[in-house]
Amino acid sequence: MMVFFFIAAYFMPAEDTGVIFQPADQVAMMVIGAFVAGGLLLMARPRVRADSHGIEVRNVITARWYDWADVHGVSFPDGAASARLELPDDEYQSVLAVQAVDRGLAVRHVRTLRTLHRAAVLGE
Q1: Cα dist from 81 to 46, 49, 97, 99, 103, whole Å
Q2: Among 85, 77, 92, which Cα is nearest to 121's?
Q3: pTM (2 decimals)?
Q4: Looking at the DSSP assignment, which residues form a beta bridge with residue 75?
């Protein structure tokens, strides 16, 4: 994405559109490209880590740690885009690292999280 914006900025003054582009316009185009690329990279940030003690969910911006005792369950509601942790007081935390488009892989990950949750809660 950044390469596209850099190429566009490079060729901006070469086109005869009736508009006079200055070097500041080229720099602005590169800065916009950097922001767009950075925004797209945020989509690659989600992650989930789980062990026998709890689960860490890192979504686009935030990361939170939950003890398994604080989690009521792991679900993947019909029509939902991602899995979620069921929390007390009818709250939930989306797990963006487990997406419905991953199909079989998402099912395997949800089953693994449920197994870890069951083992921690029941003391298995």
Answers
A1: 14, 19, 10, 6, 11
A2: 85
A3: 0.76
A4: 84
- Two structure tokens written together for 18: 């009736």
Query: Which residues, at least 6 apart from 61, have a Cβ–Cβ distance to it below 8 Å?
Result: 42
Q: Cα(21)–Cα(25) distance, rounded to whole angstroms?
A: 6
- The residue that leads in pLDDT, 84 or 22, is 84
Which residue bears the tokens 């740690």? 65
- What distance in Å separates the CA atoms of residue 106 and residue 101, rounded to the nearest whole number? 8
Can you tell me the mean pLDDT for 20-37? 91
The DSSP result for 41-106, as a single string, is HHTT--EEEE-SSEEEEE-SS-EEEEEGGG--EEE--TT-SEEEEEETTTEEEEEEEEEGGGTHHH
Residue 47: CA atoms inside 13 Å, Cβ hemisphere, count?
Answer: 8
